[in-house]
Design goal:
Blueprint lengths: L5 E5 L4 H12 L3 E6 L9 E5 L5 H8 L4 E4 L9 H22 L3 E5 L11 H15 L3 E5 L3 E3 L4 H11 L2 E4 L4 E2 L1 E3 H11 L8 E3 L9 E2 H12 L4 E4 L2 H15 L7 H7 L3 E2 L18 H14 L4
Parallel strand pairs: 1-2, 1-4, 2-3, 4-5, 5-6, 6-11, 7-10, 8-13, 9-14
Antiparallel strand pairs: 9-12
Length: 305
């Protein structure tokens, strides 16, 4: 990858975006990142106060950038309008700012859910965002990550906490692919190179052929925390009921919604090997069982487990 790029990043205060910034700085790139709240000053990064629905801030973010990596998005919302606003309208605004600023490369973080837009409002919004990127005049790459894990992830942490107690509750039987946040970050940086191939649609993973069954994933989590675990596959009706209870108890803050149940219960969230990144550009470096163990160690040292 070309050294010393000027990178603009959305979602830099989140799990994936935060790690991406660390990797970018370590590689010698200059970073400008969007934030809703004031952040501590540090060398190599300029924080731009704003949001996806504040166009002037997006203009400041994109100004002078060689590449813009759009990580920000909505993964949970009370209705389809919330997903549309965060993932479609937000992407449209970021694209407009990048085009106006003359950004040479646009990297969009989507989701495997975009393959099944009729399955969930989340997936439909991600498919809509991809269509916008593909129609833009910019040189672009779209990345559909599978399940992302790594130090600091609050979503996967819930599964670690269950494994520590000796069981892991998962959706009905199916298979999934995984990727460590560092491998994803390295891929995003490789794709941000203005010389990278144009029009790429990439579905990356950890390199494990055939992905992971839910049972295999549960057992790997148990090994990571040093316990033998029972993997419990919960049926769709039960998950629907749990989602209703979560909605009653936590309202708009509910973690498990009907939309997420529809997404979780799909039996095939494995990447398409035919959509892997060009090998000369990127290969996964983190072996998953070791990555899961290292993540568990981080959780323990941070006082989470």
């Amino acid at each position: 990858m070309v050294a010393d790029l000027k990178l603009a990043i959305t979602g830099g205060t989140g799990f994936v975006g935060g790690r991406l910034i660390e990797l970018a700085l370590a590689a010698g790139h200059e970073v400008r990142a969007l934030t809703r709240r004031d952040q501590e000053s540090r060398s190599g990064i300029t924080w731009v106060n704003g949001a996806l629905d504040i166009q002037p801030s997006l203009g400041r973010l994109a100004e002078g950038a060689d590449a813009l990596i759009h990580v920000a998005g909505v993964i949970n919302a009370p209705d389809s309008a919330g997903f549309e606003a965060g993932n479609v309208t937000g992407t449209s605004a970021v694209l407009a700012a990048a085009e106006k600023a003359g950004v040479k490369r646009f990297v969009h973080v989507s989701s495997l859910s975009a393959r099944e837009p009729r399955l969930s409002a989340y997936g439909a919004s991600k498919a809509g965002s991809e269509a916008l990127v593909a129609a833009a005049t910019l040189s672009y790459a779209i990345v559909r990550p599978p399940a992302v894990y790594g130090p600091g992830d609050k979503e996967t942490f819930e599964l670690y906490r269950m494994a520590r107690r000796g069981f892991v509750i998962l959706p009905p039987e199916g298979r999934l692919s995984l990727i460590h946040v560092d491998d994803l970050g390295r891929l995003l940086l490789a794709l941000a190179d203005p010389n990278a191939p144009k029009g790429l649609l990439v579905e990356p993973d950890d390199g494990r052929h055939g992905g992971w069954s839910h049972r295999e994933f549960g057992q790997a989590l148990g090994k990571a925390v040093g316990r033998s675990v029972a993997t419990v596959s919960m049926s769709r009706p039960i998950l629907d009921l749990v989602a209703k209870v979560d909605g009653w108890m936590r309202g708009s803050r509910a973690k498990l919604t009907a939309d997420r149940v529809a997404y979780f219960c799909h039996p095939d969230w494995m990447v398409d090997p035919g959509r892997g990144a060009p090998e000369h550009l990127w290969k996964p470096q983190v072996e998953t069982e070791q990555g899961l163990a290292d993540t568990a160690k981080w959780y323990r040292e941070a006082g989470w487990l």
